[in-house]
Specification:
Layout (H helix, E strand, L loop, with lengths): L11 E3 L10 H13 L4 E3 L4 H4 L1 H11 L8 E6 L1 E2 L11 E2 L3 H15 L4 E6 L8 H13 L3 E7 L3 H8 L7 E4 L6 H4 L2 H8 L4 E3 L6 H4 L3 H17 L3 H10 L6 E4 L4 H9 L7 H12 L5
Parallel strand pairs: 1-2, 1-10, 2-3, 3-6, 6-7, 7-8, 8-9, 9-10
Antiparallel strand pairs: 4-5
Helix pairs in contact: 1-3, 3-4, 10-11, 10-13, 11-12
Bound molecules: NADP nicotinamide-adenine-dinucleotide phosphate (NAP).
NADP nicotinamide-adenine-dinucleotide phosphate binds next to strand 10.
């Protein structure tokens, strides 16, 4: 499949928090089935999630119900060496050398009980990255059938361009929410539009801060969004997803909810045509000042 024909589902499910959901294997299978029934076909993982245990938790469900695999896309990430009990590094750091990327991809394949990952992202920009060398690693793992497509996460526009020059990338996975708007101004979303590559969006609910944050910004945004959500007759979560989806880069928000109702609230946003005035009212509440 060429990068141009690669398409994630409009809403993606993120598995960062799966190990805290306390679901049995049968419940994990049911959770995946219900996500698929809602049209969520893409599942976002990373080697390090859940202290390196999250992929295996999802993989146990795929092993129990192998027919699910062909109905979904598996996305994973690598490149962060995260200190943990079984990985006693002195510090956390980034590593995009061939041996580490290969080792982590092969570990994700084993954990997820699959032959191929649909998309692998370099999780964070590695300041020591050898772009040409990393592109060779991408090409080799693609040739071996282990990874279908490549992308990055949290890369600046110039970091994206550097790697893209050596190997086609399909996305930059970025943080964007009514509480975190840096991507609107730092050029990453402009670049996505320029290249026609749809970004993936992490923490669209600010990781839950939208509901529970007691800092000034969260309180201000929640008050404004609650009043708008009431007018549209939708939940606060649905409004937050609609706010992200309104961006012209045609982003794919990643829901981090473990509740099926949480997934449903994300999917409901696909039918909410958010007015520009309301979009800017949320921007204004977030910044704490009007547009210049
Ligand atoms: P999020 O959707 O912003 O936050 C999810 C959190 O919000 C969950 O704890 C969820 O709890 C809570 N929540 C949802 N609805 C709520 C409500 N109505 N009231 C109170 N709490 C509510 O997303 P995220 O989990 O931070 O991130 C989503 C995904 O993005 C991750 O799973 C991961 O795949 C990806 N990610 C990527 C990066 C990166 O660097 N590339 C970084 C972070 C995350 P419930 O489970 O109870 O709904």
């Amino acid at each position: 499949m060429s990068p141009a024909s690669f398409a994630l589902s409009p809403i993606v499910a993120g598995l960062w928090r799966i190990t805290s959901w306390n679901l049995s294997v049968a419940e994990r299978v049911r959770w995946i089935e219900q996500a698929l029934e809602l049209g969520i076909r893409s599942f976002d993982h990373a080697d390090i999630y859940g202290d390196y245990q999250a992929e295996a938790a999802f993989g146990e469900a795929l092993k129990a119900a192998p027919a699910l695999r062909q109905r979904m896309q598996l996305v994973s990430k690598c490149g962060i060496r995260l200190r943990s009990a079984q990985r006693p590094y002195r510090i956390n750091y980034y590593d995009t050398c061939a041996t580490y990327v290969r080792a982590q991809v092969e570990q994700s394949l084993r954990n997820l009980h699959t032959e191929q990952l649909d998309l692998v992202l370099i999780h964070r920009p590695d300041y020591l990255m050898d772009a040409a060398g990393l592109a060779d690693t991408f090409a080799t793992l693609t040739r071996e059938g282990k990874v279908a497509h490549w992308g990055v996460s949290n890369h600046s526009a110039s970091q994206f361009a550097l790697l893209q020059q050596h190997h086609p990338l399909v996305t930059n996975q970025l943080e964007l929410s009514p509480l975190h708007m840096a991507a609107l101004d730092n050029g990453t979303l402009d670049q996505a539009q320029q290249l026609g590559l749809r970004p993936m969006i992490w923490s669209p609910l600010g990781g839950g801060r939208l509901f529970t944050g007691d800092d000034e910004q969260a309180v201000r945004v929640r008050a404004e969004m609650t009043s708008i959500a009431n007018r549209y007759g939708i939940s606060l979560a649905t409004l937050a997803f609609a706010w992200v989806l309104r961006h012209p880069s045609r982003p794919h928000p990643i829901t981090g909810s473990g509740r099926i109702d949480g997934l449903r609230e994300a999917v409901a946003a696909l039918d909410v045509p958010l007015d520009a005035e309301d979009w800017y009212a949320i921007w204004t509440a977030s910044k704490g000042h009007p547009v210049p």
